Amino acid sequence: MSAAQALGKVAVLMGGRSAEREVSLMSGAGVLKALQGQGVNAHAFDPAERDLSELKRKGFKRAFIALHGRFGEDGTVQGALELLGIPYTGSGVMTSAIAIDKVMTKRVWLAEGLPTPRYVLLRKGAYTSEQVAAVPGELGLPLIVKPAREGSSLGLTKVTRDADVAEAVERAAALDCDVLCEQFIAGDEVTCPVLGAGDDAKPLPVIRIVAPEGNYDYQNKYFTDDTQYLVPCGLPEGEEAAIQALVLQAYRVLGARGWGRIDVMIDAATRKPWLLELNTSPGMTGHSLVPMSAAAAGISYEALCLQLLEGAALDPQGAAKR
C-alpha cells in the first residue's frame, strides 16, 4: 500500500454556509485535484448539502478542511469531527473559536504582551450613535471598521472622515453582531504563514502585499490580477526574520497547529510590526498566499496539500471518565 493509500478515504470539506462559500469552493477544488493527483482517495464534501454524520457512515478516515469563515473555521466543524473521531487538518476547537473572533484574538495577544492595534468594540443593538461618533476621537483617522468574525475583508471599510463612521459600522453590523473599530497602521502590509505545531512549528517566507490604492478588499484578493504579492518581500535587512519570530510567537500563544497565516502591518514611521489576525483555514485558490509562500520555500502546492493532510489530528484528550 502506498503512503497516499494509507491515509484512507479523505473528505475535502468545501463550500459550507459562510459568506466565504464561493472562495471555499475554489480552495476545495484545488485541494481535491492535488490530493487525487497524488493517489489519495479524496472526495468533495459540502456540509451545506450533506450532514456531517455521513462522514462516519461513509467510512471517511480523515478530513481536509477547506472551509472558510463561520461553520468551518470557527470551531464548530472541528467540534463535530472531534465527536465523530475523524482527524482533521488545521487547529483544534479552542484555537479555531478564538481565532475567528478578532477581538478575542487581540485580548489573548495583549495579555501576552504582543503588539496589536488599539480597538473599540461595538456590540450590535447595544451601542449608541454617540458611542459611534466618539470612535474617531479614540482611535484617530483614518481607522478600520470590520465585522469581528468575518474573513476575506468582507464588510471591511477604511474610514477617512468622521461623517462616514456610522455607515461603515452599519455595513459591518449587517454581517456580525460585533463590530471591531481598529486603529489604522499606515505602512507595509505583509502576511506570514506557519506550518506545524508547538516547538516544531516553522514560519514560511513573508509576503508583502501591494494592492491597488492600498485597498486589499475581497475583489482584489480573489478576482483581479492587479494586486502585487512580493516574495521575497524586499523588506529592510533583519525585518523579515523579526516578523517571522513575532508571528511564530503569536501562533504558538493561540495554540494553533497544522497551519495558519498571520497578517501584519508594519508602521512606516517606526517600522514596528502590528499583529492583525490569525487565519486558521487559509485560502488555497490560485490567488492564495500560503501556497505562494510555500512555493518560495520549495514546497509545491501538491506537496503542501499532502503534508497538511498527513498532519491531520484530533485535539489532545485527557483520561476518559468511567
TrEMBL record:
It catalyses: 2 D-alanine + ATP = D-alanyl-D-alanine + ADP + phosphate + H(+). Binds 2 magnesium or manganese ions per subunit. Mg(2+) 2 binds at E277, N279. It holds the Pfam family Dala_Dala_lig_C. It is found in: Cytoplasm. Its cofactor is Mn(2+); Mg(2+). Its EC number is 6.3.2.4. Its main location: cytoplasm. One of its GO terms (molecular function) is metal ion binding. Belongs to the D-alanine--D-alanine ligase family. This is D-alanine--D-alanine ligase. It comes from Ramlibacter rhizophilus. The gene is ddl.
